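Input chain follows. Return structure tokens only.
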Amino acid sequence: QVQLVESGGGLVQAGGSLRLSCAASGRTRSSDTMGWFRQSPGKEREFVAAITWTGGKTYYADSVKGRFAISRDNAGNTVYLQMNSLKPEDTAVYYCAVDPDGWGTISVRARAYDYWGQGTQVTVSS
């Protein structure tokens, strides 16, 4: 089992920045890929960004490319999502997730991720 705890959400004006953190504990392995997804009311959960655990390979949704940056600490147990130039359409609950069978690859499909955090609200005002 893997436990995930997100933090860093909040209310920010359009054009502002936020940094989300996701602390992983429990059974973490070098095969893990960690990702961020988001969901707003009435919409399906959508992929935002992901990073492999060992190689540092990253991938972003087109909607956030160039504005968001995913990174991890050296111990590999915390993943960050730096969000810049935020837009009102970025408003959503952001979830951290782990794909335990990533093995250096990245999936954009939510069903590939077995473990999820509780989510953190990000609200961008216009």
